[in-house]
Amino acid sequence: MMTLNKIYYQLRKNNQGQYLLLGFCIFLSVLLLSSFSLMYYGPTVQEFLPEGGDTRKMASLLLSVTVIGCFVFTVYASSLFFRYKSREYGVFMALGMEKGVLRRLLFRELLLLTLAASMLGLICAIPVSFGIWKFFELFIISNDQMVYRFGLFGFVPGVVFAAALACMLGIAGMRFVKRADIMEILRTQQKTETVKEIPSWTFLVGVVLAVAGILVGGGGSQFAARVLHIGLPPAFSLVYLLSIVGIYFMLLSIVAQSRLKKNKKKYYNNLVSISLMRFMAKSTTWNMCVIVLLLFACCFSVFYGMQYSMGSSILEEENSKAFSMHYPLTEQQIDKTVIWETASRYQLDILDYTENQAANLVISFNKRDYNEETSRYIDVYEEGKQAALFIQETDFEALSGQRIQVAEGTYITVTETDFYSFWEFADGLQEAQNPDTGAAFPLKFAGTVEYQPLTEMSSPFVYIVNDKDYQEITQGLSAGYLEQMVFFNVSDIAASYDFAIDLLKQYIAHCSSAVSHLKLWDIWAQKLADDAGEEYMYDSQLDMTGNMYRLISDWKYAPQFMVILVQDRMQLISVYVMLSIYIFIISLAAVAIMTYVRSISVATDNKALFESLEKLGADSDYRRMALKKQLAKIFRIPASIGCGLGFLFSLCMQYFNDGRLMPNEIPGLVVLAGIIIVVLGLLYGIYRYAMRKAEGIVGIRM
User: Fold this and answer.
1) What's the rounded Cα separation, in Å, for the pair 326 and 329?
2) Which CA distances in Å does 438 have to 2, 388, 433?
3) For a tag site, which of 96, 142, 256, 462 has the least CB within 10 Å?
4) What DSSP string describes 279-322?
5) pLDDT by residue (tens digit) across 484-502?
């Protein structure tokens, strides 16, 4: 005897593919989000990312994008599940089953499915996150600071997300069961949408808005600051919404308009494929909008992570020395003998060893500041409020190996490689003053020289002056304002990591409390504050026994051992790349699911139409052509717009960052173009697979 439960079980068994699809989407969403959060909220990453820094903010943004991406494609996958359910529930309601019974059956199914898939995703997130961490560990110098550490809080986003999915599915199920009558449910797959007349100018306006949103949003703030000297409010970022409006206009025009009407023969030959899309214009347009935005997120995330990994190595800087230290002349630090003895323990030879002195002199200079009251950038003249390091010409030549000429009464500014700054002017220095004698010396700008190791030792710059001028300016200067500078190389820089760590520990051990200053601490600003009886905002002592790697980034007198800096940079890159690749994977998975589901929905919803075409005499080739054109648009149009705008945004982000496109930035764009080609190839593969499935659904024989 067939009972309702047996009938329900048999129908569910026949449609188990839909249960598997929805369960897989839930599992994949929870897995990706949980493994992402396990890494991000793990002690290693949280200790590595500075509090309140841009890295942490961007990582939080990427986590938010992950949540949205996972939620969107799971919600969309559920729509197909309910479409198939409509047949089952139409049968049950025709047999007289009450809605309350159907509601309980549906809720139980959804709850069990969500619970099982979510638990499996949470469990699998642990080995997945660990495996990905170990994979990226192959590309960095592994140390105790980068060991994978498990944090229970990483499960919280996954659990909350699973609960949100359960609530969403419950609400969707409730709306599904509450539909008015049996016919409403049975006709779910046969509904069409009202076709409205779309003006011919819609597409062009959409293109203009989409491109303008990216260009104005990316470059508007920079243009206002550099040209108009105006600071735009954070709300200006809302201009990016123009791009979303533009995308919608473009897609709506493509979906709801036909540009074949002038060619009547071609128009009527393609009437079926054109009408298929127009009769579902609203849902098709919104579906394509989401796919475009997800593809945009793919391009942005992969480029965002890639731009950090493709920079030139600081070990390859020309004329750079791999080890440098600077500290007050009065400080009793490790000497040449200690350095040689330490190097010998690691079978390394010391090369190009130099010791020089530099002087902290009071400077008067031009710089750019921001006035919060007027929201304008203004050029100001800072007179005698801070100190900067000065080095004489011959000493610079000895430590850098570069030959320069500095005329009397002039100075050369030391800058980083490819220097550009909106705030600091390389030619801004006007006068140097001896802090002990008060003697002032006007100086004129004579150019710049690039030398990376010196750039972190003084703010805004380190300045080079003529030997004679240096002796004259520093006459009578006390030892408290002088700094010892030690530079050298080793015979094998790549194998010097252990030596660098050992030397760094010895350096820290020799440091007194007099040098445990924050990076922004300034000796002259401290004196001015003390003389005025005021509190100096940067007068804080660092914990010299804390995290050695965090100490380097916060410390005024941190030594620059390039092999350790490379390690820190690789750690930063690994964090960025891991997070960015996760966004890429999640967004691409969402695109794959949504395009496939949409393709199957088109075939399912229009099965009766294709059967009618066959009865009217349409052969397999004609029906295949109509279906092919419909599905091709679902893939081709969003892929072109999403990847195109993603590449444009990445290009603008690179250019508007400093108002120029450097030669070393072009390879990143080339790689992004290659990745876009791979993504398009993957979508083409999904299209071919979906096409075969759709042909089977509508009954097109091979």
Assistant:
1) 9
2) 104, 15, 6
3) 96
4) TTHHHHHHHHHHHHHHHHHHHHHHHHHHHHHSSPPGGG-TT--S
5) 999 999 998 888 989 999 9
* Start-to-end CA span in the chain (Å): 41
User: Which residue type, as a one-letter code, is found at position 168?
Assistant: M
Instruction: For residue 588, give both structure tokens.
Output: 């691409």
**Helix, strand, coil percentages in the chain from 3-state DSSP, rounded to 5:** 65, 15, 25
Residue 636 CA neighbour count, 13 Å, CB half: 9
Beta-carbon contacts of residue 30 (< 8 Å; ≥ 6 apart): 70, 117, 118, 121, 122, 125, 158, 161, 162, 165
Tokens representing residue 471 in the block: 């002796």
Bridge-partner residues for 482, per DSSP? 359
Distance, in Å, from the CA atom of 554 to the CA atom of 459, rounded to the nearest integer, reads: 14
Give me the amino acid identity at 506: Q
- Which tokens in the block code for residue 627? 């279906």
Say what the pLDDT of residue 423 is: 76
Distance CA 248, CA 228 (A): 32
CA distance 453 to 451: 6
pLDDT in tens, 227-273: 787 888 878 888 888 988 898 888 888 776 655 555 555 555 555 55
Model pTM score: 0.75
Q: Are 481 and 390 in contact (CB under 8 A)?
A: no
CA atoms within 13 A on the CB side of 378: 10
Residue 579 has which token pair? 């997070």
Q: 587 near 69, Cβ under 8 Å?
A: yes
Torsion of CA 525, 529, 535, 539, to 10 degrees: 30
**Would you tell me the crossing angle of helices 620-658 and 607-615 to the nearest 10 degrees?**
140
